[in-house]
From TrEMBL:
Keywords: Biological rhythms, Signal. GO terms for biological process: circadian rhythm. InterPro entries: Haemolymph_juvenile_hormone-bd, To_sf. It comes from the Eukaryota. Residues 1-19 form the signal peptide. Belongs to the TO family. It holds the Pfam family JHBP. This is Uncharacterized protein.
Length: 243
């Protein structure tokens, strides 16, 4: 989920040759935060299909090779490994708040997504209410009315005489109002056990999600950091910010 925020951030402050496609916020603007929030939202919408000549992939769906969610410590203890992940709904966003601290080089973004849909191949193992759970196959996960808060810490580095941004750290806080999941082929295809367990997971979604939320936040943030840094590596710092 973070790469799209960073794409937005870069393009809206960008003064490179493609800046005409996007509104630009000036760092000296007293209403910088309002401008930033508006431009982040507008650019996320415009990045839905990507920008081929910049090598920017489609934002909706957004592809992730793999994700791992570690098991928590609660009664719904489930380790989740996902591959061939497709995230939908990331371009349909309302940015509620944004702030960039120039001195600290810190970016804060708060956004709301009506629905984020994750489709992937999964492998799960663990226990739910003392019952062993295992399986692999296709899985769907829907986060409804999902709030995402991001805090990015940047630093400037010099390469070949030019300054670029390096991402020192990213912190994500991902909180849905509801989660709907379905795992195909649980218990090696035992339909009765699989249907019953899917019902339990749907009913107890909050206990499961918030038990593994620290791992969700951490692992999604790391994945997005990797892709975002690839973008920062292409664009000099003086082509990102407009004074």
């Amino acid at each position: 989920m973070l790469i799209f925020f960073l794409l937005k951030f870069c393009f809206n402050f960008g003064v490179f040759c493609y800046a005409a496609r996007f509104s630009v916020c000036k760092l000296t603007d007293p209403k910088l935060d309002d401008c930033l929030a508006t431009n982040i939202e507008n650019t996320l919408h415009s990045l839905k299909n990507g920008i081929s000549d910049l090598g920017v992939r489609s934002l909706d769906p957004f592809k992730v090779p793999k994700l791992t969610i570690d098991a928590g410590n609660g009664p719904l203890n489930l380790a989740q490994h996902y591959t061939e992940v497709s995230l939908g709904g990331l371009s349909d966003v309302k940015v509620q708040k944004a702030h960039y601290d120039l001195e600290k080089k810190a970016l804060h973004i708060e956004s709301m997504f009506p629905k984020i849909v994750q489709l992937a191949h999964y492998i799960v193992s663990g226990r739910i209410l003392s019952l062993p759970v295992y399986g692999n196959g296709n899985a769907s996960l829907i986060l409804e009315t999902c709030k995402i808060v991001l805090d990015l810490q940047l630093e400037e580095v010099t390469r070949n005489g030019q300054k670029f941004f390096n991402m020192k750290s990213i912190v994500a806080d991902i909180t849905p109002k509801k989660m709907i999941t379905h795992f195909d082929n649980l218990f090696n295809g035992n339909k009765l056990l699989g249907d019953n367990m899917n019902s339990v997971i749907k009913e107890e979604w909050a206990a499961l999600y918030f038990d593994v939320k620290p791992s969700v936040d951490k692992n999604y943030a790391e994945v997005f950091k990797h892709y975002a840094q690839e973008l920062f590596n292409k664009i000099p710092a003086n082509q990102i910010f407009s004074q």
